[in-house]
Amino acid sequence: MVTEVMTFAIDGLEPQAVTVEADLRRGLPCFTIVGLADRAVAESRERVRAALVNCGFEFPMRRLTVNLAPAHLRKAGPGLDLAIACAILAASGQIPTDHLARTALFGELSLSGELRACRGALAVAEGAQRAGIEALVVPASCASEARLVEPIRVGALARLSGLGAVLAGASDPSEAAATSPASSERAYVPDLADVRGHRGALEALTVAAAGGHNLLLNGPPGTGKTMLARRLPSILPPLSRAEALEVTRIQSIAGLALGGRLADRRPFRAPHHTVSAAGLVGGGTVPTPGEATLAHRGVLFLDELSEFDRRALEALRQPLEDGEVTIVRGQKIARFPTRFSLIAATNPCLCGRGGRACRCSEPELARHRQRLSGPLLDRIDLVVGVERPSSAALVAEPLTTSKQVAERVSAARELQLARAGCANAQLVARDLLAAVNCGEAAAKALARAYDSGGLSARGRDRALRVARTVADLAREEEIGPHAVAQALGYRHENERLGGR
Ligand SMILES: Nc1ncnc2c1ncn2[C@@H]1O[C@H](COP(=O)(O)OP(=O)(O)OP(=O)(O)O)[C@@H](O)[C@H]1O
Ligand SMILES: [Mg+2]
Q1: What is the pTM of this model?
Q2: For 8-19, what is the mean pLDDT?
Q3: Backbone torsions φ then ψ of 104, nearest 5 degrees
Q4: Cα–Cα 20 to 30 A to 251, which of 148, 241, 329, 433?
Q5: Which residues sit with their C-beta closer than 6 Å to ligand 1?
């Protein structure tokens, strides 16, 4: 007798439907799994066998073949255990099969039959909903995560012995014990009130947060660049529900547990400068997402930009431009989303002093400029100098607090969403000048800057988007000349560093 059970395997970041077929027939007792399974799935044989027996079921002493379809899809991870166990129980008549056609199962088994939390429960629930499945059975510890997807019915299972009851729609009596209460506490994020001085850098940080622009902080050591960047999460605009689901799905698949809660903050990723190109944009024989994807909808912070491997930085160009990265491995193509704002910090030169105090030789200065990678710099909209704050500024009251800035940022972002449905940095329009409502005087100022040769066509568009954000922060409908001047000022700093 052949029975079929639905489950899902995570392929990159996408849930793919997998049908587990179990066939029992007379013959010498054996248990084979076929269907392009990876090592973790192949090992599931031993886990399933032990779990069935330890939960009081009988392991059929016949010839048992389990097929995972479609055969062309490589199945990875231990999440198929539960569906395999269920297919065997149904094929051997130990559980009723009435509900199986409308139910999917997902979860890892321990040898004793307990269900273990698995990465990607949210993605599986989304896949199940898209496939029109009515109910999904997952480990109790993943149930709150899967329930974030409505309206699918989620059955929480703590132990394999409760499978029959959960399939019939009853709740597993041990569920309450296994579900950890979702914490509503938000992790502490440092506040901008700690920063003294830096009016210009604070404004640039506000513009970057409001419009989702890329920002480079450039200044001597110990002036507060890292300090400023680390305070960015406290002012980023809130996530919409769709964005929060996207962020939670990525974090869940990457194993960055959120305890079953929906992400309530934009991600902030700060990889060390020794990160490889694959670590930054994703890679590996089975393509896995990198830091750029973990920062999707949030911020990728590269501290000490000039220390990063040049190849790793070059690899960021496509994801920065397209908002996604394509990784090709053999016959497999994986696409990972990478819509983040890039925030970077660097010293002005190798000795770090910059300006007249700089002791670097010409070749050293040239090397530093080269390391910053021109094409990457061209994709950075805002460059600000972070100079030493004066002694008076260091003991003065802070210029602002995160709460005040966050309110301005969030209001400006709402204007953008109402106008174009996206942040200004992502604006794509055939006629950008009209789309951003640029005034006549402002357009002339921009044309002058372009004609003087200091601006590439991409640089012009980027400056225009920044000017739109400056105007949004000032609640101005039309972009005025001062907004363009501020945006061009940020570009001017960029050119001094070697961008175009
Ligand atoms: N503007 C400032 N206001 C208040 N504290 C500051 C300021 N600038 C620096 N500090 C203090 O100095 C410390 C070091 O600053 P930070 O690490 O941000 O410097 P940096 O510019 O990143 O230096 P580097 O180039 O060496 O990385 C901060 O943790 C803070 O205590
Ligand atoms: Mg620093």
Answers
A1: 0.89
A2: 91
A3: -115, 150
A4: 329
A5: 195-198, 219, 221-227, 345, 347, 389
